[in-house]
Each structure stands twice: as C-alpha cells, then as structure tokens.
Amino acid sequence: MSDYQYTPEHWSQGDPVANYKAGQIVAVTVNDRAATRQAIITVLKKSGYTLVERSSWGAKPPRDTLTPSNWDYSDVVIHHAGHSYSCAVNEQGAIEQMKKAQEYDMHGFYDIGYHYAVSCNGEIFEARDVRFVGSHVMGDNTGKLGIVLLENLAEAGEAWQQEYSRKSLWEKLKGTLDIGRDAVAFDHEMPTKAQLDALTTLIKTLKEFFNLKALGGHREYQLLAPGHEGRACPGKYGMQVVTQMRSAFGLAAPSK
Ligand SMILES: [Zn+2]
C-alpha cells in the first residue's frame, strides 16, 4: 500500500503515532488508545475496508464496566462462530449475526467476547472495543486480540474429539445436549476468498499497531490456558486458515 501514512515499525506496545520509531518510549495515554482505535479504522479504510463500527451494527452497550487492556497485544486468536452460523447471509444478515453473537456472549460476559468479526462476504465488524480486554479464551485473555469468522468451520464430531473425550463422566453428562448436536451431521462451510482477503487485511493492519508475535486457533490457546481444556473452535477448516495466516505473516504458534 503505497499511500500508507503509517510506517510499520516494531514497538513493544501499541501506539497511535504515525512513523513511530522503535526504541522511543512514550507513555500511551487513554486518549492515545482512542486515537489508536480510530487509526486502525483509518488504515483499514485506506485498504478498501470500512470497519462496521459498533454504532453501525447496533451493538448494545456493555452490561458493566469492562477491564481496560494493558495495551500489550501480542497474540491473535482465531475463532469460528459455530453451529448456528452460516455464510448464506447478506450484509443485513451479518449484522443480525453480530447481534446474536453479542446476545449470546452477554449471558456470561459484560459484552461480546471477541474484538473483531469477519463475515463470509468480507465485511469487517468491530466487536468488543479494542481498548478493553476480550473474553474469548477462558481464563487467559491478557494480550490476546480475538477475531471470529462468522460461520461454522468444524465438522461433525470435532467437539467430541477435541473437548468432551477428555472430560469426566459428569462433564460429559452436563454436555449431553452439546454432544448430541455435535454428533448430528451438520453443514460446515469453507472460508470464502472475500473473507480470507478481509482477514488478511485486518491482521496486516493490527500488526502495524501492535507488536504481534503469535497467532493461533482458540483450541491451541485453550489447551495452554489454566485448566488445559480442549475446544473444537475454530474447527478443522478454521485451523487451516490459522496455518495459512501464520505463514503469511511469519507469526509463531502459541506457546507459554
Ligand atoms: Zn472460540
């Protein structure tokens, strides 16, 4: 992108200032964070993507005060939205998917858990405001940006293989409904080219503002988190996206 005003440099923490050089330490104030959020939107726009901001998709306000991020994002966690999400939607449908995802997450959290979402048509949505820590890896969200792909990328049986087969009988009983749903053949989808292009642009943009080191699927991060639980997310096909993005951006696999 020849018309970028921002010269990508690697700094230890996120910074909103264009042409910021590594090595200069500047305190990142709360206002700078607002500027960074805005600068991310501007750079996406220059790349041809209009970030669908929370106000544009009708996000509800958080239920309670969110925890400000330490502004130390180093990892990108890829999720899929799961079973009841499909690519067969237009832009309005994708907005409904965002509302549904927020509604679901707000049963347990104060807001939608991820920071960004990418639809099959290649729209990029703002989910939780990036100034706040996400809720997308159980017990371990520090320094992690969450991006969700708005469809199901898992095959039938993956929740059993990745998650329930490791659990106690009691946990299996509690998950009966979930296991039942997983066992029934359901349609999975493949990420679309428009979606992969949008995701690539989003990661490239985030990499300009944060010193990203690793990228992985939710299942990889959850295994490393306290409790070492399994997760199907982001599914077999989502993990193919993970492998592709890691190599495209030279990012490491998650590690402790
Ligand atoms: Zn997930």
TrEMBL record:
Q: In terms of domain of life, where is this protein from?
A: Bacteria
Fetch the InterPro entries from UniProt: Amidase/PGRP_sf, Amidase_domain, PGRP, PGRP_domain_met/bac
One Gene Ontology biological process: peptidoglycan catabolic process
GO MF terms listed in the record are: N-acetylmuramoyl-L-alanine amidase activity; zinc ion binding
Entries under CDD domains matching the protein: PGRP
Segments forming domain Peptidoglycan recognition protein family: 49-219
PANTHER family for the chain = PEPTIDOGLYCAN RECOGNITION PROTEIN (PTHR11022), PEPTIDOGLYCAN-RECOGNITION PROTEIN LC-RELATED (PTHR11022:SF41)
The family annotation for this protein states: Belongs to the N-acetylmuramoyl-L-alanine amidase 2 family.
Return the protein name: Peptidoglycan recognition family protein
* Taxonomy of the source species: Bacteria, Pseudomonadati, Pseudomonadota, Betaproteobacteria, Burkholderiales
